[in-house]
Amino acid sequence: MPPKPVAPPTPDINDCCGNGCDPCIFDLHAAAMEQYRAELKAWLALAGQTADAGAGGPSF
């Protein structure tokens, strides 16, 4: 199983230069968080399938 995704670090308020950049560092962080959430959702689904694989109980 692949390693659990790690959330991107949150930029400090002082990391923004305040010049109205496009994209701003906070926009980039928001996009990285969207990607992280998608990867985490997929990882959790895979982890659930892996955990459930042997939990079927006896087969009669």
Automatic annotation (TrEMBL):
Domain called Oxidoreductase-like: residue spans: 2-43
Pfam families registered for this protein in UniProt: Oxidored-like
Name of the protein this chain belongs to: Oxidoreductase-like domain-containing protein
Organism per entry: Cupriavidus basilensis
